[in-house]
Amino acid sequence: MSCKSSSSMVLGYWDIRGLAHAIRMLLEYTDTSYEEKRYTCGEAPDYDRSQWLDVKFKLDLDFPNLPYLMDGKNKLTQSNAILRYIARKHNMCGDTEEEKIRVDIMENQIMDFRMQLVRLCYNSDHENLKPQYLEQLPSQLKQFSLFLGKFSWFAGEKLTFVDFLTYDVLDQNRMFEPKCLDEFPNLKAFMCRFEVMFHAPFPQKQAQAPYTLLVPLSLPNTNFYIKGSMVRQLQASKSWEEPGLCTP
């Protein structure tokens, strides 16, 4: 938990990676003062969600849901709205019209891509559907590779909040199929570049930072739930110690 002042933002979400990982990373990267309220979902067969349901309609949220962000009088839900809110405070939504267009496109495209994996993992017929997902995965990744092209970041040469979102989704697919990025050198370079960039500001606090917490990727009623793991400790890859690895 990050708690730097009495005026900290409050981020509420399940005790998992899920839709909050990009938000946590952006909060850390921007050195934003925040606290986390983590809700636990129970184990099978009931998957008790009472920790959240008991307070869901008591928080004065317009559209009660997880994740939520509270920043003084401002109370937000919807994960991408939260990302944009934080990003606007740090000029991370794009400067030029071209950058803003690319941000808008990627924000929506990467969420469509995320939902394909989510639907697969929560489907009871997961094992039978997995081969089809893996068959189509290269063509999906190729589109992102072509869109990124020779740029450093997905908006161009400026880091924006969609890079945090895209890193998270590509990383989840890399967990699902470890070799999925091998055919796309620029995507591998992007992942490495992000890890180098993200590691650089935090050499003294890697061990205790929230983004290194070993929490599950998703809720326990999914077929891609791995208890106590799945949030990468970025320093473990040591990408920044291998010259040339972050260039395609």
From TrEMBL:
A GO biological process this protein is involved in? glutathione metabolic process
Question: What is an example of a Pfam family matching this protein?
Answer: GST_C
Localization per Swiss-Prot or TrEMBL:
Cytoplasm
Q: Which UniProt keywords apply?
A: Cytoplasm, Transferase
Q: Which PROSITE patterns match?
A: GST_CTER (PS50405), GST_NTER (PS50404)
Q: What class of enzyme is it?
A: transferase
Name the chemical reaction catalysed here. RX + glutathione = an S-substituted glutathione + a halide anion + H(+)
| Residue ranges occupied by any GST N-terminal domain in the UniProt entry | 7-94
**A Gene Ontology cellular-component term:** cytoplasm
Q: What is its EC number?
A: 2.5.1.18
Any one Gene Ontology molecular-function term assigned to this protein's record: identical protein binding
Q: Where is the GST C-terminal domain?
A: 96-211
**Family stated for the protein in its record:** Belongs to the GST superfamily. Mu family.
Q: What is this protein called?
A: Glutathione S-transferase
